[in-house]
Every structure is written in C-alpha cells, then in structure tokens.
Amino acid sequence: MKEINPINTITHVNLTLHLGKAYDITYVRLVFYSPRPQSFAIYKKASADSDWEPYQYFSASCRDTYGVSDQRAAEIGAETKPLCTSEYSDISPLSGGNVLFSTLEGRPSAYTFDSSPELQ
User: Rounded CA gap, 14 and 97, in Å?
Assistant: First the structure.
C-alpha cells in the first residue's frame, strides 16, 4: 500500500487554540505521538485585534532557524523577549516525547511577576 502523505514530508503545521476569552497561561505541556520536530515555536496573541507574537522557540539550531541564541534566561528589561532552547530538539523518543514550557522560567521577575509591570 502506498502512503499518500507520509509524516516525514510534513514541513509546516499550525495548531491554533481559540479559548474564547483571555487567560494567563503559565505552563504548557506538549506530548508528541511522533518524533519531536527539529524546530517549532509557540506564539501568543494578547487580544483579538493584536498580531501573533513569538512566545518561545524550540530548535536544534536557534541562531539559524530563528536568528536568536540558545538562551534559557532573559535579561532584566527584556523579560518578554522570546527565548530559544535546544533542549527538546532530539528526535528521540520516537513517540511520547514531552515538551515543557513554563512561561515564567528564566525570567528575572518570575517570583514577583504579579508586581512586575513587564510581565503583566
């Protein structure tokens, strides 16, 4: 039987979740039932009228793919800047690979985010 569209030919996938109202997202867990992608990004949208903006990058080659360094911590004054990590870019496991994203991890004001103007 010939495969019409084998999974290894898929190069671009968009998954958009419409939650119906505003939420403060603090943690995202993705489970892949195929090998994890070499690169992908999480975007956010503050309101229906705003543009999508990068929230977090994941890539084996952050600089080549997204033009940013592999960096796990933001600098003071740039806490809303999307970070990039290569941590979850290994193809293994072939199924069931987790990707975890804590929106406050690596942010200097993480423990005082409720009083941080930059993180509000």
Answer: 19
Residue 101 amino acid letter:
F
What does DSSP assign to residue 39? E
In this structure, are residues 26 and 102 in contact, taking their beta carbons and an 8 Å threshold?
yes
Cα 101 to Cα 107: distance, rounded to the nearest angstrom: 12
- CA–CA separation, 3 and 9 (whole Å): 11
Assigned token pair, 108: 């200097």
CA distances (Å), 11 to each of 6, 60, 85, in order? 11, 15, 20
- Can you list the domains of the chain with their CATH numbers? 23-115 (2.60.120.260)
Confidence of residue 54 (pLDDT cuts 50, 70, 90): very high
| H-assigned helices in the chain | 62-66
64-108 per-position pLDDT tens digit: 999 999 988 888 888 888 999 998 888 788 888 889 888 888 888
